[in-house]
């Protein structure tokens, strides 16, 4: 039997083995998503929208779909979460367009446009004097982008918490209430007070970053004694020895296979079909042997370089900054193999 006849079924089996678990996992997620969707629809029928919406959101996360988004947006609207409903209808319109449902797209866009004038909006203003380095402004625990500062952002009605924090400053927070549709509330973040304890805690770090405070004591050991680098060198060299051994094995096998082909060839090296196939096998084995020898030699050399350049353990530092030892970068590769570069720093 020719090698190609064996190779194709083997590839098919390998692909099946790789794809089957993925399909199984997706089927399980789809099953869970359907169960959540059905339960959410039952809750919506009973008017229990606060319980239904999170289940629809979870279903959408497991198995995204335009239909689920439409139901989720409707649930948010019925639950009074108008901003969430508006944003989800817009997302549903885009998903419907992508999935080829122009009727769903039109319905979703229409409902989003109808909701937009009713939206409540929250404006968070951050004056210049409050814009210190490292300032983080949060709305309900989620950091907001600088681009959202002073912008009227559609927000669901109800209570919301605005918080601001920065290194070396005391945090600030405020609770605001958006009372119903079309409400708009503006919150101004004040300049944060200096936190003395935070400044004191930050001082040693700042001094160390400058370099003077980072001088190690005379009896301080360096951060790395080179042991890790030596282990890497040994591992590389060991892999190289194994590769050389594999090269020797395939080299001997190639010679033996060539001998098996001789009975099918004449003195002018003209061979019958069986002889040609055996000779082809021998050529493949010889190629594998060559590649293994080359890769093994490079690995052994790289391992030796990495091992021999490892820093030795010392009892006193030689400078005010911990030394960094870099591994030499060694690249190798061969026919049928992806290139690899060994390197790093300790």
Number of helices: 8
Question: What is the percent of helical residues?
Answer: 40-55%
Structural class: alpha+beta
As laid out across the biggest beta sheet, the strand order is 3-2-5-6
Q: Into which percentage range does the β-strand content fall? A: 5-15%
Mean pLDDT: 77
- Please state the overall shape, judged from the principal axes of the Cα atoms: elongated
Order of helices and strands: HHHHHEEEEEEEHHHEE
- Radius of gyration over C-alpha positions, nearest whole angstrom: 34 Å
Please report the total strand number as a whole number: 9
Largest sheet: 4 strands, antiparallel
Q: Distance N terminus to C terminus?
A: 53 Å
Number of domains: 3
Which spans have pLDDT < 50 for at least 5 consecutive residues? 1-8, 200-223, 315-346
Describe the structure.
By secondary structure, the protein is α+β, with helices and mostly antiparallel strands. The model is unreliable at 1-8, 200-223 and 315-346 (pLDDT under 50). 54% of the residues lie in helices and 15% in strands. The chain contains eight helices and nine strands. Helix 1 (3-45) packs antiparallel against helix 2 and helix 3 packs antiparallel against helix 4 (82-98). A four-stranded antiparallel beta sheet has the order 3-2-5-6, with no helix packed on it. A three-stranded mixed beta sheet has the order 4-1-7, with no helix packed on it. Strands 8-9 form a two-stranded antiparallel sheet.
